[in-house]
Design brief:
The structure is a homodimer of 360-residue chains. The first copy, chain A, is built from twelve helices and eleven strands. The N and C termini of chain A lie far apart (79 Å). Helices cover 46% and strands 19% of the residues of chain A. Chain A is of the alpha+beta class. The first copy, chain A, binds a DNA duplex (30 and 30 nucleotides) through helix 3.
Chain lengths: 360, 360
Amino acid sequence: MVTMDERKWKILRVIIKTYLETGEPVGSRTISKAADLNVSSATIRNEMSDLEEMGYIVQPHTSAGRIPTDRGYRLYVDQLVEEKTHSVMSMNSMIISRTNRMENVLKQVVRMLAANTNYTTMISGPAYKQNKIRFIQLSKLGDRQLVAVIVIEGNVVRNHIIDLTQPIDDEHVLKLNLLLNTNLNGLSLREINLDIIAGMKEEAGEHSAIISEVIDAVAEAIRAEKDEETQVYTSGADNIFKYPELADSGKASRLIQTLEAKDTLAEFLRQAESEERDANGIQVYIGEESPMEAMQDCSVVTATYDLGGGMEGTIGIIGPKRMDYEKVMANLKTLKTSLSDMFGTGEDRIVDSEDSGSEE
Amino acid sequence: MVTMDERKWKILRVIIKTYLETGEPVGSRTISKAADLNVSSATIRNEMSDLEEMGYIVQPHTSAGRIPTDRGYRLYVDQLVEEKTHSVMSMNSMIISRTNRMENVLKQVVRMLAANTNYTTMISGPAYKQNKIRFIQLSKLGDRQLVAVIVIEGNVVRNHIIDLTQPIDDEHVLKLNLLLNTNLNGLSLREINLDIIAGMKEEAGEHSAIISEVIDAVAEAIRAEKDEETQVYTSGADNIFKYPELADSGKASRLIQTLEAKDTLAEFLRQAESEERDANGIQVYIGEESPMEAMQDCSVVTATYDLGGGMEGTIGIIGPKRMDYEKVMANLKTLKTSLSDMFGTGEDRIVDSEDSGSEE
DNA sequence: TGTTAGCACTCAATAAAACTGAGTGCTAAC
DNA sequence: GTTAGCACTCAGTTTTATTGAGTGCTAACA
């Protein structure tokens, strides 16, 4: 049984670091020259043979140097986390201009991060931690127009205008308010599905087409809210071409396809949110650890942030397995500070909403 | 001097159509078999030689078949426009769910179009045809908070909340209102630049820091409006990998880079808006006709639509030069109808705006 | 027991050479 | 004006040769 001693660990680190830079398999001679342990390449070879046996490195083919395995990266990344904070990267250039719309801030963040790291980035729209419905109120605006006010926990108010094909009377509005509140209160947006909608229609009885119409409109409004949360912005997709191991059209194609499938991305980010993370909210997926098929040749680093006002956002950085974990994680930490400065201070936050104003 | 007769035109059409399908150079034998003109390959060769001399086709190398030149495509496309409407494509599946937010509709449109055509698509956010500022009103909400209401021609109202670092008194607000209205009224959003802002500060005199601060905030709000208009959504970037002539990582990289540079795209679409178009608002850029460097191996078809309420949007479809122009143009025509049905009927349209509602 | 020099061996990557076949242009006959 | 026939061209593919970085193993050394 071989054990991991100081020298082996040092060699492994040199292999990984060199590979991160060059992307080429690392040979024994390179190591014996680079590392400050004064041993010959032959000795290194023996050690490398051990490291291979332990599963931290492999040879892509017989007569090549070694490259790290997923397990090797994992050891390295875990170690990184334990060590003290590294040289803070220059995120200073990242002055987020004060914009009111959360959405635009997110887009800016994702773009800057992509430019800063040279990796592909993605960010999920602000999701409410507790997004249970607290109250729904329908009010008549006119004969064929209603406004639906939806209050979500965290005192977020959204309003939607509903246009009807036929007139509605006060009695029906009253009935609908009762029906909607008894059925939907306390449910989170995600829990509301077709079954529940169908159930409500059933309860209302089929006697009135107008009721069915309003319920559909409300369901649609709720769906729109969900969509809002599902929004994912990506940036720097072109960066994948900077890494030869991802740039061949087969892999690039699959990756970009995945980036285009916003739904799947959103799901991934949401899942990352709920997973165990370190103190900084950072989570690293190396190669096959990632749940997304197309990303198994990549590493993904995600970070979840508190955006204030009961909102959370998750950022993901996608790069080759040999991504510069140190830099990426430092960037994400700096970003956390920036975002906290902007949003965390309990200032009343403006959540962009619909309608209200700006008609003609 | 060779002239274009019926047979030449027929042969050219066969060459283009075949090449659209296969992407491979077309040889004389293929044509003599496929076309219903009963002549031998030798005759075809003579005709092709003429067509080449006329500049409609070329040989990629001596011993290859012919492929259309940009000029050849142009002739073909122009002809297409003149012919009666072709088999209408199945855009029926394109039931745009009734969403209130214009933005979401656009995203859906662009996604469906990409899925339908197998090309990459882009769409510019709704821009106002006449976006001149009609009126600006600042009102105090509190000691350190103002609301800026900006009315744009077409009766579009936008409001922004401005947080200040120091208190402001009524007198200053009055002064600012006067200053802003005299300087900005009648200007379109695009005309407002740093010079004008600086000019206003100058006019106000440097005596008061607070005035300068508010002007900056208003400028920022206007910039945000501009951003809104500059928004471009893309979809189906992965489709470029379906066409071998674009899929090699060099070209793909450049294309995707261009797609990521939303500003440049927005400019392109805006420019397309102002260019001469056919009756359907459709404009075709073949190869080098396109002003964008990276797209000179592609063709781009753009279409500008009236979205009602004084708004315009432009859609672009990006594909290989051998794109199925017939299908694309038919799709865009159908889309025009759909959009007119949704927005064109003069119904009061809801433009999403900021703030107002939904604070905590 | 750990370290080192030396050597034979492997194999991806690159370069050079040979082969193949679709397609052309030209000529001469119909 | 159309066609069959034939020599020629050249991208693309397969085949073969060459190179060189890197390894594993062995034997000698400290």
